[in-house]
Amino acid sequence: MKQQYKIILQVGLGLLSVGLGIYFIRHERAELSKVKEALTTADLVWIIWGLLLLIVFMIVQGVMYQKSFESIHEKIGLGTGISLYLKRNLISVFLPAGVLTNVLFFNEMVERKEGVSKTQIYFASTIFSVCSILTGIIVGLPALVWLLWKQSLSEQLVLGIVITTILIVSLVISVVRVTRSEEGTHFLGKRIPVVAQLMKDLREQSFDRQKFLQVVGLSLIVEIIGIAHLYIAVKALGGGPTLEMAIIGYAIVLLLLMSSPFLRGIGAVEAALTYSLTLFGLSTVLALSVAFLFRFFEFWGVLLMGVVALITQRDNLLVRVFPAFLLFLLGIVNIISGLTPAMPGRLEMLLEVIPMEAIHASTWLVILSGIIMLAISIYLLKGLRNAWGSALVLSGLSLVAHLVKGIDWEEALVALITFGSLIYQRHQYFIKPDLKLARRSLFPGMVAVAGVLLFGTIGFYWLNPVHFNVDFNLWESFKEAATTFLLINIDLVPATPFGKEFLLGMHLLGGLTLAYFAYLFLRPLIQHTASTEEEDREKAKTLVERYGKGSLDYFKTYPDKRYWFNEDGTGFLAFKTSRNYAIVLENPVCDGLESRAGIIKKFDAQCRKSGLRTAYYRIPESDKDLYEKLGKKLLPVGEEAVLNLETWSTEGRDKKTIRNAVNKITKEGYSFKVNEPPQKDAFLQQLKAVSDEWLRDMERKEMVFSQGAFNEKELKQQTILSLENPEGKVIGFINLIPDYNAREANFDLMRKTGDAPNGTMDFLFVNMFEYLKSLGFKGCNLGMVPMSGIDVPENLQERVMKLAYERIRQFGHYKSLRSYKDKFEPNWQMMYLVYDAPFDLIYLPNALERVIEP
């Protein structure tokens, strides 16, 4: 129930943020236009000074973050500090008490780039926020006194400031009391253990007071820059600024920001600043313009840089999707613009230099390109190189065509932005088209084109003139058929219902044929896992015997795999392809970490040339650093269990149910048998019957890739542990497979019949553990439980996986599997899916589902 309340609260806060964002955008439309008007009348030299000061402002904020971290003996780069400020400033606009609550965001970036723990990040961020508030009070209080003396402060503003101050002071006192008292610490530890641990870490944190004072000093510099920005805004718009005017005006802004819990004082700041400036003799219009220009320097400019920092960060999903979105938007803009008459004034100017025929041609080019763009945007999302090239050409043509058809610079600007985004993201589009399919299908396509053109030519030639009020000759019939086929026939107007039907039919045939060619041109190359030469498999087995170290190495030479060997043949990767992905099973098999890194880099480069993205499945926690150093991303996909056979025992109260199951089955006359290879065909037939029954009863299908399927050829050469009833019938079995960790045993299939007694698997496992101990093994790998082990999710993807694992019934059997393995008290190690960019997570689940199919 608590978890449900937590989820509801999170959803509620999310909806609140969305609502506030919509309100924010709607509320500020008028201000944005007035900022533009103010800028057009301002002195350019002073505007440049203001922008330069804005750059200094952002740098000082970055240094503030640096010194905040140095005050707790940690270090971050200036770039990280500036980026952290810009992103948090952006998100704080939409958060309640954003100056304080923004410390909860973008911590993963600092953890990843600088290696600073979350506790340290929270502490340093709190220092930053406290210093910002402190200097705001230092600068704002004199203004408050001045306004009270002038009797110019509204009751609502005074009330807001007083309430905010009381809340902040009360919060600080409460936190100090709770964290210092034993009762408070015990309460937090019981109710909110994560917060309790955080408070404990903060109490133990050493603190550099000198660095703290430097942060305060830098924060005061930020306030001085704000005062200078107001002074410059007045000067740029032709006013007569004074230092008193700038200080008091800026201090009022600070007071409003402190008293405004949402949206950083939007609306109220402009109104209050305008009023205060009129007290110094500025006209209302000039004061309002100054307020808008000042807000551009202090608010909108920083906000815009925050958006840029957010969408241009490395591997940002929004950046990856943005070109496709822009192309789709440009397609809609093109269609609407082409169907909308040009503005008369602009058209008159054009007709002086361009003939009407060129304008008409540009109009239809815009419409046709818009239709094609809508289709290409879908393929652009998939990363097709051909789609990128087509989009680049079409956006470039649209840029020119919009200017030619009506000097539509607004639409041309959209085309230019689309063109630029495609250039910026050009390296993301490397998936090759399926040229073999295109070549095979080209002849049928050409036959279809010829057929449609012939049909159209004959149709127009033999049509009764009454249908179009035109008697077409042969050449005119061919031209009309061609233009109708290309969907650019603009002059032909049907006069009868039959004429409309004929024209519609030609458009339909033309559209379908063009769509067919677009499909051939843009269809991605679908990679299929080809059969592997037996020589390669034997070579891979030799390398596994020499360098194998993991529990999955056996499956790397399974019949479903393909192999990629390095140049000198001393290492390889086992993988399968699924559409546009090459999915590698675990690590490369080779000698040493350096060799692993080299193989991964070269394999990635080779796949990129072939138009494939790469992913690495079930990478152990111990190898996490290797992939992070290569710039890859990791997503936890489950935990692998390894039982310590040296400490394993059925003794103790917690093992009572296991002992009872074993004793019960033993008393009923069932027996455990070790069947050494090679296995007899008759015995394998019994195992096949058990396996088929288990698959049928469990409603499952065979899966491969990181596990094995029932394969008589493989099982014939393996040790089989079986459970047989008193009549000698096999009712359950486990097959042992090679584990290239010399101290660890491994198994694959564990299956039983539907009429097997309760506790069959417990019986098999206990006897298997004892058998393995007798052979000298120190551990036994129990396999992975998907989606388990994410106790404290660190990002959205992990939160989704944790929610699915805990709450969605479809994944409930994973919880049961985890619970079953937990009773043997194994050691757990997290396993990861390694990928290159967040965008990959859209397609990888489907790709993984395909590679596990036999």
Q: What does this protein look like?
A:
The chain is flat, with a radius of gyration of 35 Å. The protein is α+β, with helices and mostly antiparallel strands and 854 residues long. It has five domains: 2-311, no CATH class; 317-428, no CATH class; 435-522, Helix Hairpins (Orthogonal Bundle); 534-632, 3-Layer(aba) Sandwich (Aminopeptidase); 640-851, 3-Layer(aba) Sandwich (Aminopeptidase). Strand 1 and strand 2 form a beta hairpin. It has an eleven-stranded mixed sheet with strand order 1-2-3-4-11-5-10-9-8-7-6, with helices on both faces. Helix 15 (317-339) runs antiparallel to helix 19 (409-424) and helix 20 (435-462) runs antiparallel to helix 22 (497-522).
Low-confidence stretches: 1-25, 525-531
Strand order of the largest sheet: 1-2-3-4-11-5-10-9-8-7-6
- The gross shape turns out to be flat
Q: Biggest sheet, in brief?
A: 11 strands, mixed
Helix content: 55-70%
Distance between the termini: 41 Å
Strand content: 5-15%
Counting H and I runs of at least 4 residues, what is the number of helices? 32
Q: Compute the gyration radius: what is it?
A: 35 Å
Structural class: alpha+beta
Q: How many extended strands?
A: 11
Average of per-residue pLDDT values: 78
Number of domains: 5
